[in-house]
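As a warm-up, study this chain.
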Amino acid sequence: MSEPAGASVLIIDDEAQIRRFLGISLRAQGYEVLEAENGAAGLEMLASRGADAVILDLGLPDLDGHEVLRELRAWSSVPVIVLSVRSGEAEKVKALDAGANDYVTKPFGVQELSARLRALLRLRPEEDQAAVFDDGILKIDLARRQITRNGDIVTLTRKEWSLLNLLMRHTGRVLTQPQLLRELWGPTHEEDTHYLRILVAKLRTKLGDNAAAPRYIQTEAGVGLRFISSAEP
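Now compare it with the structure written out below.
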């Protein structure tokens, strides 16, 4: 079966030989290939350039692969295949629980890896929105968890970050109140809309947004919220 047209794959592995081997094979199959030799560089590349899939080694020199997964999953739903010499069931479960979509043990066959990659790309979710938003006034970098407004640093609470993350990852789409309440406070709080009203008001204040004439967070009365850009009508 052919690969999805134009798909890009980010390889995060500290072994140059593995990166070279995978790069040659994947490029021959028509993929665009990006490479990073450690976790921090991989997260930076994913945030700035994006990718349709990630192949991630667990044994990285700077960040443990599980930590990279947790960081990545805070702002991206990109499919991830983990590569590891660790073949134990507990290790596989730990990686999958941390957000991996698949797990391949080293040494591996490139045909098997390619088949797993094709399967994930056929099932890939809607393309993630950019991890960085910048309209000249407000700059939001989800990957680095940094916000500046007119050059000044804006500090958010954990819940405010979580809400902004959810909205930005679905820019332009309405997220319903029950969805947001379930994601932020759990399934037992789907009726506690006052929690959300208070949180949105605080977040708007910090972003310099105005509920009456929103630039960033728009309320769809009785339905939910959506993240917009100032360029939208």
